[in-house]
Amino acid sequence: MLNSVTDALRAELTSKLPAAAFRELTDAYLREPRGRYQGSGGLLVAPDCTEDVATVVRACADARVGIVPYGGGTGLVGGQIAESGPVPVILSLERMTRIRATYPAENVLVAEAGVILSNVQDAAEAEGRVFPLSLASEGSARIGGNLSTNAGGVNVLRYGNARDLCLGVEAVLPDGSVLHGLSRLKKDNTGYDMRHLLIGAEGSLGIITAASLKLFPKPAGEGAALMVVEGPEAALGLLALAGDLLGHQVSAFELINHMGLDFLAEVGPEVRAPFADTPEWMVLIDVGCVAGVEPSQALETLFEAAAERGLVTDGVIAQSGAQRDAFWAIRESIPEANKRIGSVSSHDISVPVGRIPEFITRAGAALATLDDFRINCFGHVGDGNLHYNVFPVRGKSRDDYDHQRHAVKRIVHDVVAQMEGSISAEHGVGRLKVADLNRYGDPTKLAAMRAIKAALDPLGIMNPGAVVTA
Amino acid sequence: MLNSVTDALRAELTSKLPAAAFRELTDAYLREPRGRYQGSGGLLVAPDCTEDVATVVRACADARVGIVPYGGGTGLVGGQIAESGPVPVILSLERMTRIRATYPAENVLVAEAGVILSNVQDAAEAEGRVFPLSLASEGSARIGGNLSTNAGGVNVLRYGNARDLCLGVEAVLPDGSVLHGLSRLKKDNTGYDMRHLLIGAEGSLGIITAASLKLFPKPAGEGAALMVVEGPEAALGLLALAGDLLGHQVSAFELINHMGLDFLAEVGPEVRAPFADTPEWMVLIDVGCVAGVEPSQALETLFEAAAERGLVTDGVIAQSGAQRDAFWAIRESIPEANKRIGSVSSHDISVPVGRIPEFITRAGAALATLDDFRINCFGHVGDGNLHYNVFPVRGKSRDDYDHQRHAVKRIVHDVVAQMEGSISAEHGVGRLKVADLNRYGDPTKLAAMRAIKAALDPLGIMNPGAVVTA
């Protein structure tokens, strides 16, 4: 059983850490972006070095006080917010913002956990390299949080998830010991992979304080196209064809449903697709090409081959960087339009790529038995990852469906589970999906997770209530 | 404390498993390829399905008898051989050889643990795809062992290690429960990544029984070149240039020292480099190109750019598949030549890629203080992974250095440790490097490994003596 923060713990931390480590606990630290979680309090501590993080963890372990690690606060599953229970220490990484080293010839960069993702991207860019992790909140999310949640984003198809972009981590474990794992090695088979255990553990096994990250050469040229497809099945055919013709030059492959475009027209932001009629389905294809391959030519070749096979009915290839950005603005504005409409329930799910059409059909049919909805289904179809979001029909609001929210989520997640999918593709478990994980997770995996949690965090102080429950 | 196999355990297994699961324990199961480990005995069991593997594990847990998992038997660190201690069950995966499913459109293949690596490659090829894990023992190594040891090989530069080629595993954990993790998902953030914990655990946390593996589109064209470089520093310059000019089309980048060519001339096999004089250093570059890029033209462009920068002094670009094979035959014959010469001590090490030249200088200087040796240093320089092998001078044999073997290994590993490197880059820890891991490993990592081992395998039955010791 954990204790709330005591005066004694406050005094101990005050005596051991510099004054700058203590900041005012504003409401920003207690709110989740969509306002679905509200923390009740905590002692905010922001160490600026690994040793001070270790000091905090040791003191909390001694006092049996929970620690909620806090990065950029952009998580969507409540992993950064403890709503109830004993008052915790909120350990923010916001002052650990150093790029410790860059090794451009090795394509490696070592960043502290508090570096904002876009600053990592910029540091890579300054060395003529790319750090390809890219997602909507990159201007405020911090790399430690990105790693702790194994963030996804738009370039997973080509470069993998956050875990695939990390060579090693430094972390403070629940007993306050420091794991020195900032490896720059591409190959290291000396025992259990602690990096991959901490990545995706959402702070429940320790606090990542720094990471060595993989950089990549910049593509020689980049381009994008919007192609209209009959439906998800044709989109998959186009995806396979793109793989055959362009190989790993395909960076992103995003499915967009007319509902997203309708929402944009209805509530903004003001962006529109470059087609006379709103297409039922379209895909945004982004490519980064090697020298000798001209991006718009490569996309033209793809389009022609796809048209021959009846996979596409219309398409526009970006003729400039500005047009490419305009295509991306459509995709990236959809979440904001969704927010303005107000979803009944949103689902960050994945299924095997080949089963996406079946999923869309089955989930839609299952929901139709409950009520009428508008469904905006879009996302990283190249990764099998859809944001399958369920909205009120016109004239109704989110609140009108309060009584059905739980049933909607259950229906969607049941279909996902029946189809060998994941109820959390890229956002993580946090506190939002603990019950879902317990419901749908493999019992052997859950038992192993609990055993590992108990072994590494026997007092249960690390992000209590997140991911794993006894 | 573990028990030896008893008649009661034999009887129980005989009653629960089909007769075909019991095979004669020939010496092949008790010998490591280089003859450095010799097992003393065991009960050989070869189940042909996951449930039977679970039955064996449960029976062994009840009887507190150790289990040594056995794949293709090609491991080089004694992970598959228990030399001493209570008589174990040797659990061979050789009968679990089904390709359970292929999903070519998804680039996924599901194979049982006993499938021989080259058969996985062939199954991918049959679908017009590539499974890129490639290593010398691919004709006898089994995929379960490749994953358990996180095998490396020649294509890591482009495609990553074995763990990067795996989407999910099915495994029997030490209590006999089955982890159902054969995911085909590219994104799944539902809790701790058990896949990555089991991969590289060398059977000490459970037995991988099947895996879903990533396939890749075939490159549109392939090619290879041998380029002569002044030394390791120039090789790194060439590597960086290749990345800049060819991007991820570079599949392999292997460094070859004249000593390897001298050994080939001295003891065979009869292959030779296509240069009039034996180059001091050369690199073998292999490329797999996208459509629109002609491999030999791309290599020509690279060679010209490298020559302009003074990075290469000579070079030959393969003009045919046969010539490409001939280049690879040089690289792949070196281990055989090494074996014929007989090393004093061999080291599978890695350092940060940029520090390779410094490593070669420092290790050579440190060894020179001990005695005269011939050093054959070659390998996957693109991954920072060298096979740094120390040989007798002409006229002496391996046995003449018996008294120095330990000192040689210590000197090399000390330099590796001082340079942030790994004492086991791709072969694993097994039983050979347990003491080295305890000596050089991060104490926090070692403590966490022991805690995880105790949590998941409290009886210590899984591959006792390998990787982790109390």
What does this structure look like?
Two copies of one chain form a homodimer. With 470 residues, chain A is α+β, with helices and mostly antiparallel strands. Among the domains of chain A are: 99-217, Uridine Diphospho-n-acetylenolpyruvylglucosamine Reductase, domain 3 (2-Layer Sandwich); 219-341, Alpha-Beta Plaits (2-Layer Sandwich); 344-424, Alpha-Beta Plaits (2-Layer Sandwich), CATH 3.30.70. Chain A contains 14 helices and 17 strands. Chain A has helices spanning 7-16, 50-63, 117-126, 143-148, 156-159, 194-198, 232-246, 258-267, 295-308, 321-341, 356-368, 405-418, 434-440, 443-456, and strands at residues 43-45, 67-70, 89-92, 99-103, 108-112, 129-130, 166-172, 178-180, 207-214, 216-217, 221-229, 250-257, 281-289, 312-317, 348-350, 374-380, 385-391. A five-stranded antiparallel sheet of chain A has the order 4-5-9-7-8. Chain A has a four-stranded antiparallel sheet with strand order 12-13-11-14, with helices on both faces. In chain A, strand 7 and strand 8 form a beta hairpin. Chain A starts with 6 loop residues before the first helix and ends in a 14-residue tail after the last helix. The model of chain A has no long low-confidence stretch (mean pLDDT 96). The interface between A and B is large, with 96 and 96 residues.
